[in-house]
Each structure stands twice: as structure tokens, then as C-alpha cells.
């Protein structure tokens, strides 16, 4: 029924609920929360909310890491940076 | 020692890139399902090496710029590192996703001009947004109002994804989250390695390697 409604909007993409729930499930699988994974019937709104907060926390983590890296790099020279990269690759 | 290491690192990166391009060509030649399956793992394996080499260049340039000009406070430098890291991440996405294109586009155009335009723009787009959202909601019938609100929040968080349809937004978010996870892993590993190396050098144990590097 929802797909029949979509014919009014140009019909370029008939988006089914199944497709959407599939994408939401994939998104849910990425989230670190174990409690979300336990249920199959997690409401999509909750998944989206968790996703928003997760993205924000990830971005904050990147900010902190980049601050830390800038401090570390300020005292390091080029060869030390290269050595660090190679070492982190091997770890 | 330093010259040989610097020559091998770009060469190794080139070899990696060639191998990855072949893999991508094979992946593209196969069906779309195969490509979609390869994508989740993409952010977890070889891409990491590619983004490492580009981050190395970024890190070295920042070190040189920071040390030569002694630019401002640590916050400025931290933000510069963050932006360069985001740019490297977007480049690694190879322009296949909306968010990566948005990051690169905002860097290429003049920063402040875009921001000023966006500051003025919100007067008009919200009305368009509401109209578009309501039209899309009635058209697709798949995103209920509370979902649409959360979806709009997501659209704000993910760069360049404000006007996408719901399923596209979900795909972009998935890719963006994986990319962010990889970025965090990479930077954390780099920070660990750097602190370990600086700890070693400061303790004076690696005197021989320092002299051979010079």
C-alpha cells in the first residue's frame, strides 16, 4: 500500500517498508550497544536516536584524538612521524 | 636510513593502491550485491592502509607548518589535524558517497564564504524542507512524523545529507559510521605508536636508531 502511494512522487524509487527496515537493521548492527542487538523488534526511532548520539560521540572522540595527535606531532620530527605510522601499521 | 624509508613508503603505498584498484575493478565487474557485500569490509581492511599513507602526508605537513609558523594555540592545531583527517577520510571514500563529496567540496570552496551563505540560507530552506518532507512523507508513506524528525537530525549530523531521501540517508549514515570508526581506530593507533616512540626516545634507549636516521 505504501508503494502504491509512492507513484505520485515521480515513481523514480519505490521505497518499500521492507527495504527501510532492512537498512535500519544494518544500521543497528553497527551500533555498539549490546542491548539493542538483543531484540529484533527495536523501533526504528530508537535506532535513529542511538545513531545520532553515537555519531556525536564518534566525532567528539575524533576531536580529542586529533588534539592529542597535534600535541604529539608538535614535538616529533618527520622521521619520528614516519616511524610511528609504520609501527602503527604493524601493530 | 631516512631517505630509504621515505622512498619505500610512497612506493609501498603505490603498490597497495594498484592492488586495491584491481580489487575495486573486480568488485565493480561483479554484481551490485557483490559490491555491496564488499563495502562493509572495505572500511576495515585495505582502506586502512591507504588512509594511513595519506594521513602520514597530512601529519608531516602539519608538523612542518606548525613548527615553522608556530601557529596559535593547541586548539587551532587540533582543529587543523581534525580537518585534515576528515579530508583524508573523504578522499579515501573515493567520491562514492554524499558525505565525502560534501566534505571535499566545503574544503575546496572558500570556507568562510560557504559558511556565510549557509547562515543566510536557513531562512528559506526550512520552508522548502517542510514542504519537501511532507510531500516525501505522503509520497513514500514510509517515514512517519517522529521518524522524519530523527531523520532530519541525522541529516544535519552527516555532512551534506540534509536533503536526501530516507533510504539514501540511511545508507549514507551506515557508510559514515563505518568510516568514522575506522578513523578513530587509525588515529588511536597512531597516537599510541607516537607516544610509545617518543617515550622510547626520551628515555634514551633508541640512541642508535636516531643517529642512523640522521
UniProtKB/TrEMBL annotation, chain A:
Protein name in UniProt: BHLH domain-containing protein
Gene source species: Digitaria exilis
Record GO biological process: regulation of DNA-templated transcription; regulation of growth
Gene3D superfamilies: Helix-loop-helix DNA-binding domain
The BHLH domain, residue ranges: 4-58
Entry keyword set: Growth regulation, Transcription, Transcription regulation
GO MF assignments: protein dimerization activity
Keyword Transferase: no
Source organism phylogeny: Eukaryota, Viridiplantae, Streptophyta, Embryophyta, Tracheophyta
Family that this chain belongs to: Belongs to the bHLH protein family.
UniProtKB/TrEMBL annotation, chain B:
Keyword vocabulary terms for this entry: Nucleus, Transcription, Transcription regulation
Similarity section: Belongs to the bHLH protein family.
Cellular component annotations (GO), alphabetically ordered: nucleus
Residue span(s) of domain IBH1-like N-terminal: 51-110
InterPro entries referenced in this protein's UniProt entry, alphabetically: bHLH_AtIBH1-like, HLH_DNA-bd_sf, IBH1-like, IBH1_N
Protein's UniProt keywords contain DNA damage: no
Protein known as: IBH1-like N-terminal domain-containing protein
Naturally occurring in which organism (per UniProt): Digitaria exilis
Keyword match Cell membrane: no
Domain of life of the native organism: Eukaryota
